[in-house]
Specification:
Elements (H helix, E strand, L loop, with lengths): L2 E3 L2 E6 L1 H18 L8 H6 L8 H29 L6 E5 L1 H22 L4 H14 L4 H24 L1
Antiparallel strand pairs: 1-2, 2-3
Helix pairs in contact: 1-3, 3-4, 4-6, 5-6
Amino acid sequence: MFRRDGEHCVARFAPDEVNVLRKVAAEVVALLTDGFDRSDPVVDRLFPDVYPEHPDDAAEYRRFTEGELKTSKIDQAGAILAALPSSGGGEVTLDAESAEAWLRALNDVRLALGVRLEIQDETSLESELDDAVLRDPTSSRVFQLSVYAYLGYLQESLLDALVS
């Protein structure tokens, strides 16, 4: 997937991959803007309490940091949207700063999707996917688990390209 090309990380995406990446990045932006709800388990996972044993301290810390953190997460998802080809498939070239934004955004997407899919760890993902495929290979769960696995692969390839 991603490979190193001088100072850049480069990958070629098929149209379906571009569509999936656009969709998941846009969903994170929507979650953090239109649908921001502190009681949502995904929001809780993306913005965990720094002081879980001290709710007043956690609320105070959140009051001073949450807006900037939310803006940063939106910008990172926006980095994915901005770098993708406008239509169809194509090549994406990322400098070090853009690659780091992609890594953080992919992590946020995987955290959100992991909460929604109730994935505990990578081992459970593999068995979940196997079970879901056996039950109904055309189910939306198989697709969602496959997207989660694909995003992990993409994240790993980008990290490998960055450090090579």
